[in-house]
Design a protein that fits this description.
604 residues, Laminin, 4-stranded antiparallel beta sheet, 48 strands, 41% strand, binds 2-acetamido-2-deoxy-beta-D-glucopyranose
Length: 604
């Protein structure tokens, strides 16, 4: 609608309006407002008017037309780095690529201060790839390569999205090797990698750094090591030996030594090696003259030997006595023989024997001129006397080689005797069974009696053989009597039957039952120990003989004594008295000697 037609249209409207009533006219103003207008009070309150809404221009009733705000330019209306977008009745702004609205929304209207600002693309890590360096620009960014990296497929600076360029690490390649060094380790071949070297075998580090590093320029740098060749020089010489040597003296070279003939190596090794330390090492050579076969020692054997040392030991049954048990080969090739003495082992007490059932004799085996103390313990026992136990000891101290000790041993006793050599703690044992001896004769007083029956007395002699001893009383008619045998059998004939020639036993009494003193009446008609003490015949003459007997098993020992002579009253003959005197003499003598005897009486 042009200006002119608009004016005509408005005049037409005014004419129509004047033809209508005034009150209705006021109310209709608001009803006639354009849809894109608002009805507002007049500024002087004199009525209502229609005003186009914000962003529209027009009369508010017939037309309200959109206003294009962007027309004045995006920079003016939206600000720097923006694009303006017009809308029906309004507009909005957006930021150019590489920028971002300060309210962080994709669109904005700048009336609240919102504006567009540069985006820092470098905040995103790895934008430029490995080894790349990001540079932020106003509304953009670019990339270059870090130290140790080079640009690939392009030039610096580059844009990773637009260009094909990228950064690649510098690679130094394999380290170059030298003649006298060897590579020990390397962390890699690229920039910053470290390679370590050491001197080759046979070379020795003298100075410099043994590590190399890959630089940004693609070169290995820093290796300054200096390795010198190792030389051991001439090997040493040893007496009595010769060597096999190839005249070299580098590391690993070996030299073999050999002893000259007549000598042998007493060391452990005969090879010298040139070591990394620059020295000849390994051999422990010492050539020694040979001593020949191992020396012999009497009664000994060789426990162990090598060519320079022999260890000896006494054979069994012998023991070592002083001296060293080692023979050594001297440097002059002669054995220094062991001084060991091998002595036959003998017990300290030997050849032990008993003399006369009384004395002990033995040989002492001693290796020193020392005094030995002997303890002799003897224990006696009797089979026939269970309660009997005799235990005694005796000491003997002597340096002698032959020893003798006499003991007071009782008869008819079994003794176990032990001899202890105290210093060596050795014991020898022997048994002695002492034999039966004649019993002691009781004390009596010889008397001659005339009938009737005499009472005889005796004093008992104490003896340790009481258990096996007894007394017997013999009555012998003097007439026709020829001999009396004191050793005759002891059991006789316990009937009382007279053996006119031997007489007969009238009583037998065990000595253990006899008190200190005893009275005995010949011919009292009683029984004694199973023997009949028969009354004497009147007018006959008798001898009364007392016999002490000790008997153990088959052993029998007896002593006799003439106790009395009984004379029948009617037969007193001088000659018989005489003979009796002679008889007494014989009996007493025999009893005194303590042997078996026989005596004779001749009667005429
Ligand atoms: C009023 O404005 C709106 C936009 O806000 C538009 O769509 C419409 O067509 C306008 N009405 C007239 C009658 O011009
Ligand atoms: C190299 O040198 C380092 C010190 O510089 C040392 O520790 C290392 O033992 C050396 N390596 C060799 C193989 O010599
Ligand atoms: C023999 O043995 C002795 C003792 O073990 C030792 O010292 C010596 O070196 C050895 N000799 C030889 C030639 O083996
Ligand atoms: C001693 O011992 C022997 C043998 O055992 C035995 O026959 C004998 O009767 C014993 N003698 C004594 C007195 O015990
Ligand atoms: C002595 O008697 C004992 C028993 O008591 C016996 O073993 C030993 O052989 C006897 N000795 C002699 C020398 O008869």
């Amino acid at each position: 609608m042009d200006e002119r037609s608009t004016t005509v249209f408005m005049v037409l409207l005014l004419c129509v309006g004047s033809a209508t009533p005034a009150a209705a006219n006021i109310l209709d103003v608001c009803a006639s407002c354009h849809v894109n207008a608002t009805c507002e009070d007049k500024y002087d309150k004199s009525g209502k008017v229609c005003n186009c809404k914000y962003g529209f221009v027009g009369n508010g009733r017939t037309f309200c037309q959109d206003k294009d705000e962007c027309q004045i330019g995006a920079t003016k209306i939206c600000g720097q780095h923006t694009t303006c977008h017009n809308t029906y009745g309004s507009y909005y702004c957006t930021c150019l690529t590489g920028y971002m609205a300060s309210n962080n929304l994709p669109v904005f209207i700048p009336n609240d201060g919102t504006h567009c600002q540069d985006i820092d693309e470098c905040k995103v890590a790895g934008l430029c790839g490995e080894g790349g360096h990001c540079r932020n620009l106003d509304g953009s960014f670019d990339c270059s390569c870090q130290l140790g990296y080079r640009v690939h497929n392009g030039t610096e600076p580059f844009h990773p999205h637009k260009d094909k360029a990228s950064c690649q690490v510098v690679d130094c390649g394999h380290p170059k090797l030298h003649e006298d060094i060897v590579l020990v380790s390397a962390t890699g071949t690229t920039f910053g990698s470290v390679a370590s070297f050491e001197c080759d075998e046979g070379f020795l580090w003298t100075s410099g750094n043994n590590a190399s590093q890959c630089g940004a320029d693609g070169l290995w740098r820093g290796l300054t090591v200096i390795c010198d060749v190792i030389d051991c020089g001439s090997p040493p010489t040893f007496p009595h030996s010769h060597m096999q040597w190839n005249k070299r003296s580098r590391v690993g070279t070996e030299v073999l030594y050999q002893c000259n003939s007549g000598y042998h190596n007493i060391g452990k090794s005969n090879v010298f090696t040139c070591t990394a330390a620059g020295q000849w090492e390994g051999a422990t050579l010492l050539c020694q003259a040979k001593c020949g076969p191992v020396p012999f020692l009497a009664h000994s054997e060789v426990v162990w030997h090598n060519r320079s040392v022999v260890i000896h030991r006494c054979v069994s049954g012998y023991h070592s006595w002083r001296g060293s048990n080692v023979s050594t080969c001297s440097s002059s090739g002669v054995w220094q023989t062991a001084t060991l003495n091998c002595i036959e082992i003998k017990p300290p007490i030997h050849q032990l024997l008993v003399l006369n059932e009384k004395c002990l004799q033995w040989r002492a085996e001693k290796y020193e001129e020392a005094t030995e103390m002997y303890k002799v313990i003897y224990i006696g026992s009797r089979e026939y006397e269970r309660a009997f136990l005799e235990k005694r000891k005796q000491f003997l101290s002597s340096k002698a080689d032959w020893l003798e000790i006499c003991l007071s041993l009782l008869p008819a006793t079994n003794y176990s005797i032990s001899i202890l050599a105290l210093s060596v703690g050795y014991t020898a044992t022997i048994t002695i069974n002492t034999s039966l001896t004649e019993p002691a004769v009781p004390e009596i007083h010889y008397r001659e009696y005339e009938t009737p029956v005499p009472i005889l007395r005796l004093h008992r002699s104490p003896s340790t053989l009481d258990t096996i001893s007894f007394y017997q009383v013999f009555v012998l008619p003097i007439e026709g009597f020829m001999a009396f045998d004191c050793s005759s059998p002891v059991n006789g004939k316990p009937s009382g039957k007279s053996d006119s020639l031997q007489g007969h036993i009238v009583a037998q009494m065990r000595i253990s039952r006899v008190g200190a003193e005893m009275h005995f009446t010949v011919g009292d008609g009683l029984h004694y120990g199973g023997f009949f003490n028969a009354p004497l015949e009147k007018g006959k003459n008798y001898y009364v003989i007392l016999r002490a007997v000790s008997q153990w098993k088959k052993d029998l020992k007896s002593s006799c004594v003439l106790w009395a002579k009984v004379t029948g009253r009617s037969y007193v003959v001088m000659i018989s008295s005489l003979c009796a005197a002679a008889l007494i003499g014989l009996i007493v003598l025999a009893a005194f000697l303590g042997c078996t005897y026989t005596w004779f009486v001749k009667r005429r």
